[in-house]
Write a structure and sequence with these properties.
The complex is a heterodimer of chains A (359) and B (95).
Chain A: E1 7-9, H1 14-23, H2 37-44, E2 54-58, E3 63-66, H3 67-77, H4 84-94, H5 101-106, E4 112-118, H6 121-124, H7 139-154, E5 177-179, H8 190-193, E6 202-208, E7 212-215, H9 222-233, H10 240-243, E8 247-251, H11 253-261, H12 266-276, E9 278-280, H13 281-284, E10 311-313, E11 321-325, E12 332-336, E13 346-349, H14 354-358
Parallel strand pairs in A: 4-5, 8-11
Antiparallel strand pairs in A: 2-3, 4-6, 6-13, 7-12, 8-12, 9-10
Chain B: E1 2-4, E2 31-36, H1 42-57, E3 61-66, H2 76-85, E4 88-90
Parallel strand pairs in B: 2-3, 2-4
Classes of the chains: A alpha+beta (359), B alpha/beta (95).
């Protein structure tokens, strides 16, 4: 299969290719795998889509993401060809209008897409869904997350200080990909709760800050357990407090089992967090961002900003708190605040590779 | 070694000067463009910048278009007056 990307002649030394790419403004600063024709062809063989087919234009820069261009970036990231359908689904997900990739890429906030992989591909492609799930060390997680990020940089033009104006950013803007630990969950898979069929594989992208650690224990039941998470999620400095949007709680397997055995569903957790992850107007008045009606157009109508005792939730409705089971054994959650103005979760099915279709 | 171009070939290089040599050296008689991004302090800020530019540099014109909301991009159609009239523009304000 051949596409339309320009072929460039470069020195055979991979370090010189890496440095040459950096001079052109391509990449994330880390070393890359040179995208040779052979490697890109192998990547393209993992999809039935034509190399020249367009997935769309990647904002804010507006570069056209063809299947071939995405394959080139996946090679650079270090992906195995089998991962390519996951990368395709992730890019399509962030380019869904609901996600508002233009805003996510350009904002001063540190938001970036977190990819949550679910379904049979978690095992078949050896994604890490367990210990150190947000950390490095697993090729599938790290390279799939990096491939999406490279496409956002190289095709979307989100270069820091030019079109990416994040004041701080966070390390997830290099790679941010986890997988769901379904074996340890008593709830339906996350993507199934979002409408996809049982047995399917999917990615969900969610625009989030970095993961905030929450320590807790189950000794006194579900409510006490979740209170720590609710407190972290409703910090005065969180964008969610002023802009709502969406937030995510990643539940470690110990707590997932505890909650499940106590008869709590995912929806019960969402409802409880919605009712407890709050700040009163009186508390919000002590924060600098409670300023000149910064909440207008964001808070639900029932919130009365003149009543100090009125409590403000972090999102407008319980379903906007996403609950995912992932991670290893231990007494921790990870709370991931959202941006508030975009990065809204989008779920896309992962297409079977040509080899899988043959079976 | 032959490698494939990973970027947006239809767009200028990320490291290129995208001004196309259009940076005005003398602002006298030029038109200042603004894309209002609906941030809270934007109106105050841009009014101050426009006044200072007129007072100190001789800028004579001012054209403004607004984004639909703080998080949504402005459309090409909405941008047309600014593209046609402005010599330079402020296209956003971070907070």
């Amino acid at each position: 299969m051949t596409g339309q990307a320009t072929r460039l002649e470069m020195d055979a030394d991979p370090q010189l290719v890496y440095e040459g790419f950096l001079e052109q403004g391509w990449g994330d600063g880390l070393p890359i795998i040179p995208p040779t024709e052979e490697r890109v062809a192998a990547m393209l063989a993992a999809t039935t889509r034509r190399p020249e087919a367009s997935i769309g234009t990647v904002p804010p820069g507006g570069g056209v993401a063809t299947v071939e261009k995405l394959a080139i970036n996946a090679v650079m990231a270090g992906c195995r060809p089998e991962y390519f359908p996951v990368v395709l689904a992730a890019l399509e997900a962030v380019m869904d209008r609901h996600f508002n990739l233009n805003g996510v890429q350009a904002t001063t906030h540190g938001v970036t897409p977190l990819i949550v992989v679910g379904g049979p591909v978690v095992k078949s492609l050896d994604f890490n869904c367990s210990t150190n799930v947000f950390g490095g060390g697993n090729r599938a997680n790290v390279t799939v997350g990096r491939a999406l990020r490279l496409a956002m940089l190289n095709l979307g033009g989100a270069t820091a200080g030019k079109l990416d104006m994040a004041t701080m950013g966070h390390p997830g803007k290099i790679s941010y990909c986890i997988a769901e630990n379904q074996d340890e969950s008593m709830w339906p898979p996350f993507h199934v709760s979002r409408g996809l069929p049982e047995g399917s594989s999917a990615v969900t992208v969610f625009g989030g800050e970095g993961p905030h650690s929450v320590v807790s224990n189950f000794l006194r039941g579900p409510r006490i357990l979740l209170n720590s998470a609710a407190s972290t999620m409703s910090a005065l400095g969180s964008n969610n407090m002023y802009l709502m949007g969406e937030a995510m709680l990643v539940v470690g397997p110990m707590f997932a089992r505890d909650l499940g055995k106590a008869g709590w569903s995912r929806e019960d957790v969402q409802e409880y967090l919605f009712s407890t992850a709050r700040k009163s107007i009186g508390e919000l008045k002590q924060a600098a961002h409670f300023w000149k009606g910064s909440w207008k157009g964001h808070w639900p109508d029932w919130v009365d900003p003149t009543d100090d005792s009125c409590t403000v939730p972090i999102v407008a409705k319980p379903g906007d708190i996403h609950v995912v089971v992932a991670g290893g054994e231990g007494r921790f959650f990870a709370a991931i605040p959202g941006w508030g103005l975009g990065g809204f979760a989008v779920t896309k099915a992962i297409e079977p590779s040509p080899k899988e279709e043959e079976r | 070694m032959i490698v494939l171009h990973p970027g947006a070939e239809e767009l200028p290089s990320p490291t290129a000067d995208r001004s196309g040599g259009r940076w005005p050296v003398d602002l006298t008689g030029t038109t200042f463009g603004v894309v209002g991004n609906r941030k809270f302090a934007f109106d105050q800020f841009v009014d101050l910048v426009a006044r200072k530019l007129k007072e100190q540099t001789g800028v004579s014109g001012y054209v403004r278009v607004d984004k639909p909301s703080v998080a949504e991009t402005v459309t090409d159609d909405a941008l047309a007056p600014l593209v046609e009239q402005a010599h330079f523009a402020v296209t956003g304000l971070g907070d």
